[in-house]
Here is the input.
Amino acid sequence: MSFSIDEVNFLVYRYLQESGFHHSAYTFGIESHISQSNINGALVPPAALLNILQKGLQYTEAEITIGEDGSETRLTESLSLIDAVTPDIVAARQNAHNAQKQANKETGSGSEQNGVDATTCSAASTTGGAETPSAPEPIDGDQSIDIPPSKATVLRGHESEVFICAWNPSTDLLASGSGDSTARIWDMSDNPTSIPNQLILRHCIQRGGAEVPSNKDVTSLDWNCDGHLLATGSYDGYARIWTTDGKLASTLGQHKGPIFALKWNKRGNYILSAGVDKTTIIWDAASGQCTQQFSFHKAPALDVDWQTNTSFASCSTDQSIQVCKLHVDKPIKSFLGHTNEVNAIKWDPQGQLLASCSDDMTLKIWSMKQDTCVHDLQAHSKEIYTIKWSPTGPGTQNPNMNLILASASFDSTVRLWDVEKGACVHTLTKHTEPVYSVAFSPDGKFLASGSFDKCVHIWSTQSGSLVHSYKGTGGIFEVCWNSRGTKVGASASDGSVFVLDLRKL
Here is the structure.
């Protein structure tokens, strides 16, 4: 048995992802060219690197305890990983056990006389196929807040972590995207007698004149405004457009490397994408052709967001934010001020203010009317992963509710901000691990948050109080609300997707 450098790199990359070190995983993946390997990530079981290391330790222990004559001496304590890679310690243990064996022979004592090794192996075993999830642990706190497992619909099918999910804006179809190189559409329409139907959207590439699975992560997806089409972005470098019945309508190929984000404009005639190749692209949705490619970043572009139907902002690991417009050859605005990579950007509902969040632990608000930020919000103690505006304030369906900005951080908190005042109005502190996603209900009265502590919390945006909590079986990557505000969907690191129907609570 042997392994290649690509295989080792992939196991390290997967370990970093599973452990929540997503920025490290991203950087390592780029430098080690993970996207160019032919490893099928869907076939790699969870915790593969740790299992291999554990088996390596067992082999090293066996080397120490089995003498040249085949006899065995029981270890008094297990090796640690550091022990195993330290030759002096291994040699010392071998000498000690050899001396012990000689003493046993002279005294006639030792466990060898029993014929049975009394020690037990505590190493985790691996089996083929999907991992059977453990039952959710109870959440400490008010039992009236906790949502019992019986009130959640758990959707199984994905064979790897599910990075993203999004509700169709017109019907209760939930789309999900996974590391198993598929997206899936789940029919969550109210039908209590049937199991939710799922459509599997397999992401394939042409190789040797045949279609083969791309074996790359599906990293982003977005429904168009009327819900008739779904766009997906993948680590294989292609964006794709699908119909609601799961048929591939168009393949968009212009990026050189993984796509990290993509969005439809409101009109539904253009799709915007951002990639590791440092570029952003506007695609004509009808023809599938590249309308314009923008090359203004010096490093991978991480996120994009439309301001109007023809103008947008993009952010990058180069710490800059660029505002660009269709048919204009240069950025119409550049925002500089972050001191580390910018993870996400979002325009407010009216397209007047742009919010950005960064690994520099700050949240900044920008206006097209000035070069410096309007607000520099410094309250989080670790990286800020994502941000969302409430669907409220002037010009929205909820004009009487104040406009709020939510930020989710690796410091395990969510913060709600009054942007007009530049002040934090609520700090939501029930999570115990990094928070990867937040989403406002359509009326703006509630906020859902998802964390790697496996919990989805639902909060009142007015009081900041916790309303509902549900604990799943994997770390939560994404949370989202359906258009009526009655259901919350979530996707998790163990391959599960689940739906909470709030009408049943």
